[in-house]
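Sample pair:
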Amino acid sequence: MKKISLTFVLVTIPFFILAQENEKELRAIYKKSFDSMRFIGNSDYFFDRKIDLAKSAEFKTVGIDLEILAKTLGEHSFAENVLLSDLVIVGKVKKRKFDTNPEAYYHSKFLIRVDETLKGVVQKSRVAVVLVSGRLKGGSYLNVSGETSLFVGEKVILDLRPVNLELMQAAQNKGTLQRQINVNGREYDLVDKYPIKANYVFDTYNRKIGLLYEVKKTTKEIEAINRSENFRSRLLEPQTTKDK
């Protein structure tokens, strides 16, 4: 009797492929919920900002209507910007540095002293915030319409999102981003700023929002409702409904 030898080949799936498939599944689950609520807009915009759709009613208690937010482009309220940001800090603008290279994407980098973190986690006592506007070689100045300005010495509340270096590199590879990427991924894009004067918080049009302690309280209430750190795991939790 002949002996038959069997060889088993173990096929491994690269981790990044599994991660991509899991991401697609999560986005599909999220879009289904988004569409079921009859929201108008792009569900990926909410997904990328880790907005918990199940908390729609609770958000209204702090002045955020997700249905309106989903279809609103451009300017947002203070509360909405808090929800749309990854990091919210109280701090002081300490230093500004220009990148005068006309081929660079960002032309200003601000060093911000972090006095208090209201949302998110920051590892250091200072963060770098980048703007496209800034001084160029020859003394000219690039001013991007609609981009919020920062000024050295001002005390502010800043709504921030990490620079998406991966997205920028992908755009550069596709040829849709022609300028040089001059960040390392540790910087932040500015969502909006709120100057602090005499213990009051103002918007960029110098309209009073409220006392500093009130604004800080609202910020923490929004984060408590959203619990963004558990966003992905909650999407995979079984959905239960109560009997009427």
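The two ends are 70 Å apart (CA to CA).
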